[in-house]
Amino acid sequence: MPHTSLDDASFIAQLRSTSHDVLLPGREQRTRKVRLLQAVALGSSQSTEVVLTVEDQLCCRRVRVRIVAAGDDRVMLEKGLSVPIQCIRRVEILAS
C-alpha cells in the first residue's frame, strides 16, 4: 500500500502556508471539512488513503496520504506531518 512519498513528505514539511484560505467561504469550505472528517473516519477503520490537493505560496500539488485527525486549523497526517486546513483545495477519498 503506497504512502506519502519522500518527495510528498518533503513538500508538506516545507509548505509555505498562505495567509488566506484557498477556498471561498461557505459551501466550498464546508464541503472540505465534511470530506476531511469522512477521511478520518475511513482512515481509522479501513486505512483509507486520500489525495489532497495542497496549495502554498509557491505551487499547488497533489499528495497521497492517510489522514489521522482533522481539527479546526490543521490536519494531522501519518508520520507526524500536518497541513493547515486553509491550504487544502481538494480532498479525494480513494476507493478501498
* Mean pLDDT across residues: 87
β-strand amount: 25-35%
Count of folded domains: 1
SSE succession? HHEEEEEE
Strand order of the largest sheet: 2-1-6
- C-alpha Rg, in Å? 12 Å
What CATH first level would be assigned? Mainly Beta
Largest sheet: 3 strands, antiparallel
**Low-confidence region ranges:** none
Helix count, per DSSP? Answer: 2
Structural class: alpha+beta
What would a concise description of this structure say?
The chain is of the alpha+beta class.
Q: What would you say this structure looks like, in words?
A:
This protein is α+β, with helices and mostly antiparallel strands and 96 residues long. The strands form 2 sheets. Strands 2-1-6 form a 3-stranded antiparallel β-sheet, with helices on one face. A 3-stranded antiparallel β-sheet has the order 3-4-5. It contains 2 helices and 6 strands, in the order ααββββββ. It is globular and about 35 Å long. A hairpin with a 4-residue loop joins strand 1 and strand 2. The protein has one domain: Roll (SH3 type barrels), CATH 2.30.30.
Q: Which labels suit this protein?
A:
96 residues, alpha+beta, SH3 type barrels, three-stranded antiparallel sheet, 6 strands, 29% helix, 30% strand
